[in-house]
Amino acid sequence: MSASSPILLTPGPLTTALGTREAMLRDWGSWDGEFNRMTRSVCADLLAVAHGQGEYVCVPMQGSGTFSVEAALGTLVPRDGCVLVPSNGAYCARIVKILERMGVAHATLPLGEDEPARAEAIEAAFAREPRITHVAQVHLETSAGLLNPLDEIAAVCARHGKRLIADAMSSFGAVPIDLRGSGIDALVSASGKCLEGVPGMGFVIVRQALLETCARRSPSLALDLHDQWAYMEKTTQWRYTPPTHVVAALRRALDQFVAEGGQPARGARYARNCATLIDGMSALGFVPFLAPAMQSNIIVTFHAPRDPAWRFADLYDAVRAAGYILYPGKLTEVDTFRVGCIGAIDDNDMRGAVAAIGQAVGSLGIKIR
Ligand SMILES: *Cc1c(COP(=O)(O)O)cnc(C)c1O
Questions:
Q1: Pocket test for ligand 1, best of 62, 73, 167 (most atoms within 8 A of CB)
Q2: Are residues 250 and 270 in the same domain?
Q3: Is the pTM of this model over 0.85?
Q4: Taking Cα atoms as reference points, which of 48, 63, 77, 74 lies closest to residue 185?
Q5: Residue 110 lies in a domain
Q6: How far is the CA of 36 from the centre of ligand 1 (A)?
Q7: Tens of pLDDT along 90-126?
Q8: Gap from CA of 91 to ligand 1 centroid (Å)
Q9: Which residues span the domain enclosing 273?
């Protein structure tokens, strides 16, 4: 692996397959039937990943994942709604920021960064704050790598008649999600995470009957999910300039996803990556931040060593020179760093990364324990 094309151990952008990058070696017209059929087939495949055919539609959106989260919240929540945000990390905090900007009422359920959102706690929040109409739930909090129990939360929302918008950005494609009979009203993800495409587009999988009631509600023109969907239904085209190469890369990435065996196979490969990483790092003396029961297979947060010689930037540079890109921590209270397990990489790559980290720590003279 040359230093000019390192392995990204980051949760998007991530390492993509050669075929995915090659799919971007031609240009597409946004009016062209072939391109618009490609968009349609991508959306059909995305819908199938979550078993949403029939009842749900998939609306693609230009931009990074946050653009789609903002589009979903702005389009699906009425101005007089009130959104509960169970909050255990930076992506939950981002949802709160979006709601503040839009002037939408919200209540947060504050949790520790190692504390999953529990259905009982959400039920108690409904009792405390009867104005709550919606729940915005991050499925996999990428800040720590924490998996929230989406099925339980969806069931409690359905029982209480609350709408549920799930940010499944870093879980979609790798963690099982089944929309059939679920309490999930909308699911948001993006091209450049577990689907292993390149970054540049997100998508919202939403109940069609709900989306149909949301015309002219979005406070944003560019992020109006209903308008985007209605225009695409009418014309087959994207409403504004589409990210053509990103769509082509995602088409190829989805072909590879299906060939690999879909979500179960992708989840299993990431589980092997994650187990290899945790075993290797533990042998070096590093301690994961999360208990195994709540640790996802997507990204692992490790405690920083207590040695005063420790500086993440030094480790980053040394490991980068060996061909691997690490990720800084994103927790507010504890000094940590993160290693992603997703992308077109396997357990051999993880063993290589662990070896590079071990060598770097040795040459930097850092005591881990
Ligand atoms: C990546 C991610 C997002 C979107 O972040 P962008 O920087 O806009 O791509 C949102 N939520 C979660 C949980 C994520 O992992």
A1: 167
A2: no
A3: yes
A4: 77
A5: yes
A6: 26
A7: 999 999 999 999 999 999 999 999 999 999 999 999 9
A8: 7
A9: 7-13+262-364
